[in-house]
């Protein structure tokens, strides 16, 4: 990991995205929508912060985990920019430019993750080979089971109130 995170092109690109998001969210009438402003700002900052935190952790599994968080936050930024556009807070071209920037960051992160994952490394943000069965146990405790379509339904003869 030799470099400082400040030298990483993806971190620099995410820093530009944060600046652009703050410029956008400070303009009226968007600046008066505290909820969406805050959510968009937090998501953008999260991209940058998770790249830095993962890099500073010093281990490949930690870095990969935090890069997945950063990638998820970049997706969140893109999603929220659709809302910004739909609500008329910014011009479609400006939102599209920022979505493309966030998507470029996601691609850089995905490539970086892929470069660190060996053949024995399971895909996705989990670093173990066993699937996460926590949600299955939760639904089972509630007397539910997954049907053929993937939906959870009450188990037959279950006494759930």
Describe this entry's structure for a reader:
The protein has 161 residues and is mostly helical. The protein has 2 domains: 112 residues, de novo design (two linked rop proteins), CATH 1.20.1440; 31 residues, no CATH class. It is built from 5 helices and 2 strands, in the order αααααββ. Helix 1 packs antiparallel against helix 2 and helix 3 packs antiparallel against helix 4. It is flat and about 55 Å long. 25% of the residues are buried. The model has no long low-confidence stretch (mean pLDDT 86).
Q: What's the helix and strand layout?
A:
Elements: H1 9-25, H2 34-57, H3 60-86, H4 92-116, H5 134-141, E1 144-146, E2 152-154
Antiparallel strand pairs: 1-2
Helix pairs in contact: 1-2, 1-4, 2-3, 3-4
């Amino acid at each position: 990991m030799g470099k400082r995170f400040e030298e990483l092109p993806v971190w620099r690109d995410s820093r530009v995205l944060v600046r652009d998001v703050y410029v956008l969210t400070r303009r009226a009438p968007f600046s008066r929508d505290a909820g969406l402003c805050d959510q968009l700002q937090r998501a953008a900052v999260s991209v940058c912060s998770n790249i830095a935190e993962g890099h500073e952790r010093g281990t490949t599994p930690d870095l990969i985990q935090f890069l997945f968080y950063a990638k998820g936050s970049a997706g969140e930024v893109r999603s929220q920019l659709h809302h910004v556009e739909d609500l008329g807070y910014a011009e479609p071209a400006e939102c599209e430019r920022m979505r493309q920037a966030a998507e470029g960051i996601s691609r850089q992160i995905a490539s970086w993750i892929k470069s660190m994952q060996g053949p024995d490394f399971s895909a996705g943000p989990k670093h173990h080979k066993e699937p996460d069965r926590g949600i299955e146990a939760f639904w089972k405790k509630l007397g539910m089971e997954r049907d053929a379509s993937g939906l959870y339904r009450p188990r037959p003869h279950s006494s759930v109130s």
